Every structure is written in structure tokens, then in C-alpha cells.
Amino acid sequence: MGLPRVQRPVTATGGGLEFTKGHACGNDFLLAQAGDLPQGSLGPLARAICHRHHGVGADGLIAYRRTAAGASMLLRNADGSRAEVSGNGVRCLAAWMVVTDGSPIGHDVVIETEAGAKTLTLLDAAAPRYTFRAQMGDPEGLRQETLVVDGEPVQVVVLSVGNPQCIVLVDSFADAERRFERLGPRLATHERFPAGTNVELVAVERPDRLRILIWERGVGPTAASGTGACAAAAAAAAFGGAAGAVDVVSPGGSQRVELAPAGIRLTGWAEIVCRGTWLGM
User: What is the third-level CATH fold of 140-267?
Assistant: First the structure.
């Protein structure tokens, strides 16, 4: 099946779509100014530009507009589907705001998402890598359930951290690796979640250290997930014996999650990779 063709805007550079690419622990995003995007085509555009071979390649496309405090954003997954928020995506966008504004250490960047405003504080700026502590809000609907997958009962923890999450607490990381390719896609599209869900298999290695594997809704396996790390920490603290402050290690790197009275705090870095012009097919 061919990629969808979309009408692209003509920019001041003479044609194509101007973009910035960033990643946080390997979870990568393309950033484009919303005013440069054709109306009503964000989903098809995301599928085309995020394609790993025919496009630029990314886990998602962020359309943003500058605001007085930072930026507002809409996020589409690599398959064009809607995502309410991404912890790594907001860090990538905040990093780009810091680059363009020349902001100092300690500066707050407010990113408005479909899951509410997220405030990110710049902790370190060693270009091209920028470290932030983000206020991610409170987990909601945290509870255990048993779902049937291929005839097998699977105990999960479901919750929302601005987007839907399904956590499987496993005995070891080897167990997570063994079960990931089967449980990840089946839980992500399980009938329990009509709009789909993000899935993490989580091993509590120590009270202050988790290792996770991530199957993102609309993407598939990803190297990291900020909201997935938050959800994993909340689930492991409630039902897996984890502490309230943990390092969450995914294939792409480690993020720090603190379950504070004022809400979840997520600390990690984002890196600006490049800027370019996408000329399309």
C-alpha cells in the first residue's frame, strides 16, 4: 500500500515543510509549526513524514504554536492516530523552545497539551542535550484488573497519566522480554480499550529501580516513553513494592520519576538532532 499523498504548504524557503527533529532516550519526534501545516491533514501527514523509509522517520509528529509561556501542541502518532500527550514529546518541544529563546538554567517552559498544561523546568543545558523536570499531574483511575489474552488470564494495572496506560508487573526483566512481543500488541488493541492503550511490561529490580519494555499505541515498540515511565512508577508503587522515587530504565535510557503530593515529577533529557525541509514523495 502506498503512502497517502497530502497537500503541503510552500514556505519562505521555496517549498517543502520545515521541521526540527528531537529525541528523548531514543523516542523521537518531528516538530513543525502548526501555521505551516495544511488544514485537516495532520493524521495523513504524520503517517507520511514519520515513515522510517519514505519519510524523515519518527515515533510522532508534533504541531506546535508559540505562546507567551512556551508552546501549545497537537501530537499524532506515527500511524496518524491522536495522542493526548507524550512525556518525551513535551521535553523535545521544550528543548527546542530553550534553543530558540536562549533560556537560562532554572527557566520554566509551559507546554499546553490535550491532556492539560505541563510545566518543565530546565535543569541543565549541555547542547544539544537539555535536561528538564516536568510536572506531569496526578495518575487517575489506578486499579488492578484481570484481562484474558489468548485464553490466558493476565493481571494488569490500568490508569491514565493524561493518556491511557496498561501495566503488566512481571517477576523479572527476562520474563518481560519473553512475553513482550505477544502481550504488547494484544493488550494495546484489547477490547477492554476501545481507543487503544499504551502498554508497559515492568520489572521491579529494586525498590528504587524499574526496568520496562514499551509498546506504544499507534507506534509499537519504542525505546522510551515519558508517560509510560510515570505510569510504570505509579503502578509499581501501588502494587509492586516500589518506592515513591524510582529510576525507570528502558532500552533507550533512564528517567527519574517521583510520586509527589503535587503530582508526578518526571526528570530526563531531550536532544535536538537536526533541522531540515521535507520535500515529500
Answer: Diaminopimelate Epimerase; Chain A, domain 1 (3.10.310)
